[in-house]
Specification:
The structure holds 2 protein chains of 2 kinds. Chain A is α/β, with parallel strands linked by helices. Helix content of chain A is 43%, strand content 13%. Chain A has a 6-stranded mixed β-sheet, sandwiched between helices. Chain A has a 4-stranded mixed β-sheet with strand order 2-1-3-4, covered by helices on one side. In chain A, strands 8-7-6-9 form a 4-stranded parallel β-sheet, sandwiched between helices. Chain A starts with 7 loop residues before the first helix and ends in a 10-residue tail after the last helix. Chain B is an alpha+beta fold. In chain B, the strands form 3 sheets. Chain B has a 5-stranded mixed β-sheet, with helices on both faces. In chain B, strands 6-9 form a two-stranded antiparallel sheet. In chain B, strands 7-8 form a two-stranded antiparallel sheet. The chains are: A alpha/beta, B alpha+beta. The interface between A and B is large, with 46 and 49 residues. The complex binds flavin mononucleotide, iron/sulfur cluster (2 copies) and FE2/S2 (inorganic) cluster (2 copies). The site of one FE2/S2 (inorganic) cluster has 12 residues of chain B, from loops.
Chain lengths: 575, 239
Amino acid sequence: MEPSLDLSPIRSFLSEIAPQGRSALLPALHAAQDFYGYIPEPVALEIAQALQIPAADVFGVIEFYAMFHTHPVGKVIIHVCNDPACALAGADTVFKQLSRRAEYALETGEPISVTVEQSPCLGLCDHAPALLVQNFPATSAPEITWQELTTKTGRRPQTHVDGDLRLLTARCGKGHTTTLKAYQASGGYSALRKALTMTPEALIEEIKASGLVGRGGAAFPTGLKWESAARAEGTPKYVVCNADEAEPGTFKDRVLMEDDPHQVLEGMIIAAYAIGANKGYFYIRGEYLHAYHTISHALEEARTAGLLGSQILGSNFSFDIEIRRGAGAYVCGEETALFESIEGKRGFPRIKPPFPTTHGLFGKPTVINNVETLANVPLIIQWGAKEYRKLGTEKSPGPKLFCLSGDVQRPGLYEVPFGVSLRHLIFELGGGMRGESPFQAALVGGAAGTFATPEHLDTPLSFEGLRAAGLTLGSGVITVFDAQRDLRDVLYRLARFFADESCGKCYPCQIGTQRQYEIMERILNGQTRPGDAERLQDVGWTMTDASLCGLGQTAASAILSALKYWPHLFQPVSS
Amino acid sequence: MNHPLVSLTIDGIAVQAAPGSTILKAAQQAGIEIPTICYHDHCTANGLCRICVVEVSGARTLVPACVATVQDGMIIHTQSERVRRSRRTILEMLYSSVDLSEAPEIETLALVYGADSQRFPGAQRREPPLIDDNPMYIRDYAKCILCWRCVQVCAEDAQYTYALNFSGRGFETQISTFYHHPMPETTCVFCGQCVGVCPTGALKPKREWLLEKGYTPEAIMGLTRNERRGKKRREGLSH
Ligand SMILES: Cc1cc2nc3c(=O)[nH]c(=O)nc-3n(C[C@H](O)[C@H](O)[C@H](O)COP(=O)(O)O)c2cc1C
Ligand code: SF4
Ligand code: SF4
Ligand code: FES
Ligand code: FES
């Protein structure tokens, strides 16, 4: 044991949370990482003993999450995004410059040690190239000094919020967080009051009638999900808000949480009332520290106002919410992997069936919904399903948020009714291409999505419209590439993302994402081998068909779509 | 209790199976062989290798037969083109990753599915050095296919000793002890259950390993005796 290691901070933390047992493991590891700058062995043992978890399991969990380290790292950690939208804006150069600057600081004995790491999409794609300093958004603008950067005193980037509608985003994009008071002044929590006068059955009927489907990517009807959990045997029941947003290109949930947290909380409380849950978890991506703070603060405000806790607003209904921070694993956005993570385990997705509505968190009936899905709920209850359905299309009712980034004039978050065209979003709302170079393609649906070509520009942005065009909505991402861009670079980055983020549980994805990455790397470097296109097809279809979870099942979708539209990109250069 | 049987069709054959039985078991009863790698009768099935996938009419993806249960009216194909492509590619990818020279069952499957062991030239392999840290067994993870059996028998599937877990994730995943400690410094009780379920020779009795390396039985006796004494000495010191 290192002689200087003081175990008292972790011990006092553990004495508070030990009664939670294994489900306190991620909070304990976060605390240890914060106290010591890494997780020393004796600390891991201490945690294992206090929470009664086998030591080897604690190690396995540390090893799974990118934000936990078994060896010391710098006091200040800077994350530089290296996913497509940021790559277009020169993120690789920024990474090199900052790394050199950090090395220089180390050599000259500057007091704070800084570690610069490359990272998957940070949900700041509209501010490419994106940076996080100690998990707070920063900007790499040339006028920011090293001192300002490493002490987080530079300014925080603001997301541009706009659109044909401002319903979900009515209180977003103003440069500050909407307080409880301001939320209530604009009618906030009146939907909860109304919901509490309805029966849970009537409430579920209203959500079913609204036609709301999940915004997290899987597009499952929300009303049916609630009904199934409400009817399921077994108690307690749980409501979980999935705020693990990490799909490259996505930042909508971050904006909703940072700018208008109560709207999401109100939706979550209504969901709990509908299914009869008394406990909820809000699982926030580890890198979203600012959102963690705004949600924590909003929870405090809500508790003080009697909107959370026992006998909410004088009713017989009691409900409270606990926050869990993720720790750097995209796969934990997959609902069952997220449950495992809350339970203090490696984020391995479970085999389905059984489904979360009957066997979810801690094996109990659970409703898990995306942040944006929950944000729609107060609106539906306030307006009534009939009025809500007037927005959007017959099969995709309501408003939808799109995250626009890449080579456009005005990257940002756009709220539109379902059914507007891709052209409208990119060329009217987003102001069209940033430079002279024309539109080449857009990646629709994020890393797990597919490419849209110029022929797709008039496709209506709705579930059915996109499906008919062979595209997917995914989590509402649109990353635009002009004609100068080498799409092989984009595909290479996507392949690397999936290889880094595969959990390793099932063979098709565990090995397939690695092989796909290696092949894309040599294609990018002009070293394509004969047969590489066929290898990508076999690996890609095997992952799509045979993988255990949605990560592997979509890890090849962008590459397979590129193979269809631009087969020449994958052919060896003939000499 | 007498539950009515479930009726389904597998490769055109009408099959009746008990409700709750897996597709794998139902097929076996009907004399249809579905290949497996990670599945083991005495371990929790986790659906890892996906070699057992079959095509179920109406399902979006292929379905793992070792964990999916039979449903009334299911129409299943166990040898469709989609199924065969996935099986072949999984085998080819396994060959590109680890040493399968002591996994004869996988070699047989490779022949059946026409898998080319050289399909992925230049691929990164998992080849960590062999670990010889205890007198009972060696751990050669260059042969490990991550079937999880050892981890599971060490935990709830049998022994409840919890000496083994994982390091890394994705392709970099490895079976590991707490902070990579040598086996004798873990909770391991040397029951040997992990060695018994390992399908690829990654875990092997030390004696067998030494015999393969050409040691005589007498020399092996001497070696392991010394090693045990050494362990006792270390324990004596630390107490
Ligand atoms: C690899 C992977 C990552 C995911 N990440 C997220 C995420 O960050 N946020 C989210 O809401 N859903 C995510 N999902 C979808 C969830 O599994 C789940 O479908 C969703 O949370 C359900 O909520 P909804 O019905 O409101 O969309 C992900 C799925 C997969 C396969
Ligand atoms: S598809 Fe990938 S992420 Fe999902 S279980 Fe398999 S290895 Fe893990
Ligand atoms: S060591 Fe053997 S039993 Fe353990 S996971 Fe690897 S192949 Fe399976
Ligand atoms: S923050 Fe860089 S791509 Fe999203
Ligand atoms: S045998 Fe079914 S997944 Fe391995």
